[in-house]
Amino acid sequence: MTENKTGVVWGQDHPIGVAVLGMGTVGTEVVRIIRDHADDLCNRVGAPVVLRGVAVRDLSKDRGLPAELLTTDAETLVARDDVDIVVEVMGGIDPARALIAAALNAGKSVVTANKALLADYTGELAAAAENHRADLYFEAAVAGAIPVIRPLIQSLSGDRVNRVVGIVNGTTNFILSAMAETGADYDDVLAEATRLGYAEADPTADVEGYDAAAKAAILASVAFHTRVTSGDVYREGISKITAEDLETAAAVGCTVKLLAMAERVTDEDGKDKVSVRVYPALIPRKHPLASVNGAFNAVVVEAENAGRLMFYGQGAGGAPTASAVMGDLVMAARNKFFGGRAPGESVYAELPIASIGDTPTRYHVNLQVADRTGVLEAVAGEFAKHHVSISTVRQEGHDEGARLVVVTHHAQESALADTVAALAELDSVTSVTSVLRLEGTEE
Amino acid sequence: MTENKTGVVWGQDHPIGVAVLGMGTVGTEVVRIIRDHADDLCNRVGAPVVLRGVAVRDLSKDRGLPAELLTTDAETLVARDDVDIVVEVMGGIDPARALIAAALNAGKSVVTANKALLADYTGELAAAAENHRADLYFEAAVAGAIPVIRPLIQSLSGDRVNRVVGIVNGTTNFILSAMAETGADYDDVLAEATRLGYAEADPTADVEGYDAAAKAAILASVAFHTRVTSGDVYREGISKITAEDLETAAAVGCTVKLLAMAERVTDEDGKDKVSVRVYPALIPRKHPLASVNGAFNAVVVEAENAGRLMFYGQGAGGAPTASAVMGDLVMAARNKFFGGRAPGESVYAELPIASIGDTPTRYHVNLQVADRTGVLEAVAGEFAKHHVSISTVRQEGHDEGARLVVVTHHAQESALADTVAALAELDSVTSVTSVLRLEGTEE
């Protein structure tokens, strides 16, 4: 037993009370672990950790729990005197936002897996935590079971992060992996992913990159000590990726991945900015992220002293996400017991957000062209005219089916867009089949 | 500014003082970062972090530091009133052990990268930390820059770890990678590694697995909440690995790695034990650790809920190791500032250590045999007689040069040793060329 600052004596007679908000895939696992592993949790925290109640939407569903643990009144559950820590795994902005705020304002610690909420409201929630000396933990919000938030906030707190690149959405990675493997089209693979439960009935948040963008904002915030919200993230989804894109990627030794990137870039005046972006891109097959397939996630962190680190594992699912939630819960409970505090929000660096125009990338441009003398010269001329430097050009096929694959050096998005518009006007160019960014190469 | 339990008010007028013990590869980088990144450190901690002094062996060497910061009297430096945190990067048992104890006994927090010391003396050091409410951090002791201790202690604190397998020694991994790539012999590659600075003049600690064993003990301790010391680790080095071993490994789709393993095993009575072992083993080329080459490190953690996680990065070197040290230093300084505590030693599970005999593994046995009828039958007979079940047999070559490669199912080490002894006695067996374990396969 130990006495903390508020004079509470934790121990067998005064266990640490937990409320769980939401009993979906993750909540069910969290509840199971709290109940099944009470001894381990007590040993690891120093005092018993007891489930006080679970807020659900529907009381009639059998959840294998004593009725008195279930309630539809989350607000009252959060406010209970014997609830010290609130685990929010209900998702969505409302009512999660108000419930978390209420908990923090009452000095209760909060563990949440809610990336959409954190991506836009970390500022107000962190302020509430700070004002009431409560903890706000959110390891489970990004990349499921993979420890990445804690390493960024704590392990790399004495280093200078320059880049975070991750595959942080399992649905899109499953789809892109399956397309690469089978040669099938996007629509067919999406249908299969939906059937298998890897994609939701409305897959928009995943396939259009909104989920990855929320996670990118969270990663960028903790990596760069700067508040980044989802609106700061440049975002493109994978719904326009074709079987042909995967095929041409393979032909040049690459694969296509939906990347969430947060990067320190230096503008013309030598000032640091943060570029945060989500889009599908070609990466070389030898890149460590290229072999991250199916529903797995991975995050690569590059820091000044640490060099390149990679974290890999299951990015979603009930038990893996619950593992991350439980780690945070044990730490929050330990802080109650020992009187410590989670590191609060750190936004001192206040780096400006770089526009996508400030962030040159390499491009991979596919053109359908007429197979006649001078076409390469004409195409190369348009790139040169717009100051986009070409790295390699590959010509494939003959006659009507001839194709040019142009890989550029780093170029501004606007310059590339102008080039593409001009290429489309050329007589010798039948169509610009696809334009994809190329990442993960050393020029 | 904030007031902690001891009434100290940290801030511009009362910075957090740091002593660094040792100025080798890692110490030099730590000192550089503390001095060059003072602003970032102050922002991340809440108060300035100031270097009070560096203990070195030789004052005459130019280290680019003001003379008043250097001392050969580590004991007095540690005892200074204005030193709040001691960073020990001198290595070795003595005098590091006494200096760390002195710091902790004075309530000063300690950050250390000293795996040899921790592997054998964590118990006494952790007790000193506990008794004097000081922090003992050691992320840098295992796998350099890669966050693995903190994820195990904190992120996975609500999960149940079943296995930790790592490549945690860069020297041996460099040697084995080079042998696999070039086909060269052990001695030649070791000489080259020494020339390039990847191996020390006396490479024993690395090549005989002592360094990896110390790290395995530390990993096992934190993963299984059980005190494990280096003497508990079954250990074999790589000095007997031949070019032929690498070649036959490649022929069966494997590579050879020096693995540090800590594993939960269940004995005949259904009781959990911890098996901790270091040895070179074949792993399938598709295993995530198989592509970890050169001086890189990686650690795979398997937990009940998280599933399989992998952490990858630079396992040694000045700057990478300093990154881990600095992360710990910032956390220790934050705890001074905010009044929190690092998680202490957790050994409540007290799992018994499994003997190597309790830990069946698969084996890969190479035999030089006479190419005549009945040899396979005779060999298979010896395996059967000793209850070692064969998975596959491959026969190569003819006449005098015929070779049998036998891969077993899981077998007891003693049974395998008896089998090998009996095989060597067979008329049809010229010699048992090599016996290597096989890990990372699902049977």
From TrEMBL, chains A, B:
Any GO MF annotation of the entry: homoserine dehydrogenase activity
Catalytic residues (UniProt): 215 (proton donor)
Catalytic activity: L-homoserine + NADP(+) = L-aspartate 4-semialdehyde + NADPH + H(+); L-homoserine + NAD(+) = L-aspartate 4-semialdehyde + NADH + H(+)
Alphabetical list of PROSITE patterns matching this protein: ACT, HOMOSER_DHGENASE
Pathway as given in its UniProt record: Amino-acid biosynthesis; L-threonine biosynthesis; L-threonine from L-aspartate: step 3/5; Amino-acid biosynthesis; L-methionine biosynthesis via de novo pathway; L-homoserine from L-aspartate: step 3/3
Keyword Metal-binding recorded: yes
Binding site for L-homoserine: 200
SUPFAM superfamilies: ACT-like (SSF55021), Glyceraldehyde-3-phosphate dehydrogenase-like, C-terminal domain (SSF55347), NAD(P)-binding Rossmann-fold domains (SSF51735)
Gene3D superfamilies hit by this protein: 3.30.70.260, Dihydrodipicolinate Reductase, domain 2 (3.30.360.10), NAD(P)-binding Rossmann-like Domain (3.40.50.720)
Bilayer-crossing regions: none
Keyword terms of this UniProt record: Amino-acid biosynthesis, Metal-binding, Methionine biosynthesis, NAD, NADP, Oxidoreductase, Sodium, Threonine biosynthesis
E.C. no: 1.1.1.3
Residue stretches making up the ACT domain: 364-440
Entry keyword annotation includes Mitochondrion: no
Entry cofactors: a metal cation
Family listed: Belongs to the homoserine dehydrogenase family.
Designated name of the protein: Homoserine dehydrogenase
Organism encoding this protein: Nocardia terrae
